[in-house]
Write a structure and sequence with these properties.
single chain; about 575 residues; mainly alpha; two-stranded antiparallel sheet; 18 helices; 10 strands; about 60% helix; about 5% strand; globular; iron; heme; transmembrane helix; transmembrane; membrane
Length: about 575
């Protein structure tokens, strides 16, 4: 008969830890997850910045909820900001002014909340760009990519709902744009707007509803998505960049405990400190300058936060008329004529395609490449020129839409007509992605050729040597094994021709897929083979030995002449 002896801790801390461990099995959990390895690379920090900025958002937002009044009931302002004293405004706007001017540390916390929101969306965006350009979304991480896209959309919604809460002129105009988009939907648009705003815009319910979404629903969904994302990272193991010893079957890095945990904890306080420093010295969203929202005035030079700018920008780029052709259509219906404002509906198409394309991209690329293998080692962007150039084209398309949200400020800054600025941006919206795709692909292929040259003939040292035969050459040095592995360890897919179906016929979709595959992979640079590398190393050794013998012979001749003299 076996006897189980309980562990007896000698300290109070040990007794507490032992009590928790024997009840919930914490030591097994820590042992399992503490041994997980994470690669060490600076690009992986973007995900950590997103996580830490979200923590800062929750902390600062919790403080603000104690003092913010999400009510649209009107009252005369009697607070500390004298320029608005006695002005009729909503309780939401008045409480925002009270937080800014009467609550100790309130303005600082508002600034922390706003700056961390901007940083959160920026970090999520850059993190997703890193995942895209390195191919980290491929099997088995397609669903984790979808979770990331959902997280990105939720970040935009969180920013927009929070941005609209103060009920000032700037945020009210943003809601007015949303109201216009809703009402542009045929047949059901007015009903959706009426339901969303609780009546005719602006209604009396929108701020409380946005407040509920902002502090409960959206944060809960973000926390859920973050948990799913981190769970999938643990299950699938972390991706890593190519290097010696790094394969699809292993992970080279540091364990979570204690190395990675200590580094991550220190990095959190660095991010917190930087956000606090920015918040203390750089003012943002000074709502007292705008005044309470009134549907009649529209402030000049206003634009939304950068992450929502692409929606406002594409609306500004859409013309209302092309010559005598109007985009306001009137469609006959059984109950009468219905207005169809295509000037508002057409811009929704590129916005929708952008989001939908992000969701389905892993499967689109798989259909193009016919590659269904598991990938745990990342691509260098230059080694996937098709994907990289397409991504740059989409980024340019997004940035032009984003920049168009400030078209009026550009016109003032550059002393140009607002119409001329719109024409330039429309031209860039169409031509910019095409030029960006072509130029980026040429750059990637040129960098691949440069890597091939360095792998075979070494790097240029800048040292010029003059051989006894009179040849002037630059000395080359072979790169180290780590750098060499990075230069040669990649795959260069070839175009996949159209494949017949079970009936032996080639479908229209398969022809289109083959044409896209040819566009992506027709221009390619062959990776360096092992035979080429061995031949280059042998040739390099022979040249170095021959040059060394020539140098030694010249030295001996000079020494002989000196001795004779």
């Amino acid at each position: 008969m076996s006897v189980t002896h309980d562990y007896k801790a000698s300290t109070n801390t040990g007794k507490i830890a032992n009590f928790v461990d024997t009840r919930v099995g914490a030591s097994k959990i820590v042992k399992e997850f503490g041994r997980k390895l994470f690669p060490d690379h600076w690009t992986f920090l973007f995900g950590e910045v997103a996580l830490y900025s979200f923590v800062i958002l929750v902390l600062s937002g919790t403080f603000l909820t104690f003092f913010f009044d999400p009510s649209m009931s009107h009252l005369p302002y009697e607070g500390a900001y004298k320029p608005l004293y006695g002005v009729e405004m909503s309780a939401a706007y008045a409480s925002t002014l009270d937080i800014s001017f009467e609550i100790r540390g309130g303005l600082f916390m508002r600034q922390v909340h706003h700056w961390s929101a901007l940083l959160f969306v920026a970090a999520v965006t850059v993190h997703m760009l890193r995942v895209f350009f390195t191919g980290a979304f491929r099997r088995p991480r397609e669903l984790n990519w979808v979770v990331g896209v959902v997280l990105w959309v939720l970040a935009l919604l969180a920013g927009f709902t929070g941005y609209s809460l103060p009920d000032d002129v700037l945020s009210g105009n943003g809601l007015r744009i949303v109201d216009g988009m809703m009402k542009a939907m045929p047949v059901v648009g007015t009903y959706i707007s009426f339901f969303f705003f609780g009546g005719e815009f602006p209604g009396t319910d929108i701020i409380p509803r946005l407040y509920s979404l902002h502090i409960m629903v959206i944060p809960a969904l973000i926390i859920l998505m973050v948990a799913i994302h981190l769970f999938m990272v643990v299950v699938h193991k972390h991706t890593q960049y190519p290097g010696p010893g790094r394969k699809h079957t292993n992970v080279v890095g540091y364990p979570i405990g204690p190395v990675y945990a200590a580094k991550a904890g220190g990095f959190f306080f660095i991010v917190f400190g930087i956000v606090a420093l920015i918040s203390g010295f750089f003012q943002i969203n000074a709502v007292w300058n705008y005044g309470p929202y009134d549907p009649s005035p529209v402030s000049a030079g206003t634009q939304p936060d950068w992450y929502i700018g692409f929606g406002d920008g594409i609306l500004r780029l859409m013309p209302g008329m092309l010559g005598d052709f109007s985009f306001l259509w009137h469609i006959p219906m059984p109950w009468g004529w219905n207005a169809l404002p295509m000037g508002v509906l057409i811009p929704l198409i590129p916005m929708g395609l952008l989001v939908v394309g992000m969701f389905i991209w892993p499967w689109l690329e798989r259909s193009i490449t016919k590659d269904n293998r598991e990938h745990h080692v990342l691509d260098r962007p230059r080694n996937a020129p098709g994907r990289t150039s397409f991504g740059v084209a989409i980024v340019i398309f997004y940035c032009v839409m984003w920049a168009a949200a400030s078209s009026d400020l550009m016109a003032v800054a550059f002393s140009m007509s607002l119409n001329d600025v719109a024409y330039v941006l429309r031209f860039l919206l169409i031509v910019g992605p095409i030029v960006g795709y072509i130029v980026t692909k040429r750059i990637c292929l040129a960098l691949q050729r440069k890597d091939r040259e360095i792998a075979l003939h070494g790097r240029e040292t800048g040292v010029i040597e003059w051989s006894p035969e009179g040849a002037i050459l630059e000395r080359h040095e072979l790169v180290d094994d780590y750098r060499l592995y990075e230069l040669v360890a990649f795959e260069s897919p070839e175009p996949v021709p159209p494949q017949p179906n079970k009936k032996g016929k080639i479908s229209l979709w398969e022809r289109f897929r083959a044409s896209v595959s040819r566009q992506f992979f027709e221009d390619r640079v062959e990776p360096v083979t092992a035979e080429e590398l061995a031949e280059a190393e042998a040739e390099f050794g022979q040249e170095r030995r021959k040059l060394q013998r020539s140098v030694d012979q010249s030295v001996r001749e000079l020494e002989g002449k000196r001795d004779r003299s």
